[in-house]
Amino acid sequence: MIGVLVGFARTLRAVGVPVTTDRLQSMVGALDQLDVTRAEDVYWAGRLTLCAGPDDLRRYDRAFAAYFHGDRPTAPLVPVKAVAAGLARPPADGGGDGEPHTAAVLSASDREVLRQHDVSRLTRAERDEVNRLLARLDPVGPPRRSRRFAPARRGRIDAGRTLRQLLRGGGEPARLLRRAHRSRPRRLVLLIDVSGSMTPYADALLRFAHVACRRRTGTEVFTIGTRLTRISPALGSRDADLALAAAAKVVPDWSGGTRLGELMRAFLDRWGQRGMARGAVVVVASDGWERGDPRVLAEQMARLRRLAHRVVWVNPHRGKAGFAPLTAGMAAALPHVDDFVAGHSLAAYEELAAVLSEQPSRRSTLRV
Amino acid sequence: MADRKVDSPAALAERLDATGYLADTGLATGAFLAVRMGRPLFLEGEAGVGKTSLAQALATLLDVPLIRLQCYEGIEASQALYDWDFPRQLLHLRAAEAAGRHDAERLEAELYDRRFLIARPLLHAIETGDAVLLVDEVDRADDEFEAFLLEALSEFTISIPELGTIRADVPPVVVVTSNRTREVHDALKRRCLYHWLDHPTYEREVAIIRRRLPEASERLATGVAAAVRRLRGQDLLKPPGVAESLDWARALLELGARDFDPGLAAASLGAVLKYHEDAERVRAAGL
Description:
Chain A is α/β, with parallel strands linked by helices.
């Protein structure tokens, strides 16, 4: 039986469910309690122990069917496999899977992928400069009151510390020690447009996102284009180049079109409304080129603003002479934005960092 | 303890059914394994699909207390594990002083005694053992808390520096729920059995409404289930869960509806839709 399960685990890994040995052991343990001869029991024993999220379930179902019922896995398995394992190999049965360009992008080496969207072509010195400036991003941004306490000079009486102090003094009345709520920086959420028109700025924006991730734990980064992709886990690496290469691997839609409104809705439905955007500082980096209906974008931006503490829109074109927010998407979004900043130069990023860490005096002041 | 002897997922489903909770095969298997393997059951899914009620139903059928730990941002050990009862310690210190006792070392030993310890949900569950521990909405707590939860849930022991280690004789049945506001760390999930709880099928939803609200007619139950099903397909900000279906059916009953009356349903839309935009959209499109 173990041999069968190990083979199943291999099939699962191939479709992108990261099955570890301890998880496999759990499955064996679960089967021990169930009836191994019943397909249904085997199915649930595996699903309950080997999967870790809703994304895994679909893959699990497919792998289960393929392995135990002999169904041939359908075509879209291949890109998933490539993305998950980071394989630089073209799909075995290429074509007809609807995502040929994904596979093409992935098959190129990491460097190449990076180079493809790094069209702003910073020189080495410039890039160092960017990094140095990005490092100035203030991690203690707009604070919010935490529920946790820390020792303080004034505030509520800290009974625990006072008692311990009393005890040290043999019960002699001592000074009352106090505690107050700590303050923590707000969560930062970045939504970065990686569509064709934003290509020259995507690299710099992602570097900015990487520094933000390094500086503030809990920072979340998404790319928007034709799809919404969460890249914060990929940006976990300390080294910026490695982190960006990892991010490049998971994003399937470099340089495509933009469906800002729809993806904003996808973000809010899946993540934002449930908690990620609540009380957070949300940064949208896009030029506002919207392929879809701008009314959808306006609706979703209004929704975002009701959830977020602050909405900052970064438009690389804003810094250019003669700029007017004329793209339909930009015009639709602007009424629902707290800060509107540029994102085309080093100075612009410096300003963005300053905007992110400052406490807004009034919510409604829009800086255009 | 005798109650923990459930033979199969089907038997457990039957007993859950008897408490008024209708579970499908997957959920019953998950709950069965959680009870038998002593592993936490990690339930993820939309709000209102019955994650919390499962823990309640399990506690009822096992005839053990339900101990609930509601997570929130900034929750810390003193709210989840234990806390020292400082006012009582202080009182004890004062009393000892009044009696003229000054041997500091013995006093200190006395102060950190079990009777001055306030058991919060986790410690309470570990001490009780025979209980269902519900760790509700773990995604709301921050990740530092998760690490600490992992420690408590993997060994079912809690070490208190001043007192020593407290171990569970019988590990409690643990149900962890998450609404997926953020990704819970993999290390915690690995300790658990993972189950994604979906909206029930139409037939099951009808059955759930009829089971929970016996006074509701078949026509009312099918009407509500069908309407809720349509609402879920309508791309709303917050698609209604089973909890909302039940609320709606209950509201309609209160309004004296015998079957699914469109007028009354529209009037009581607030029981299912909690966003103004959603209500507008549904009113415009027709129920």
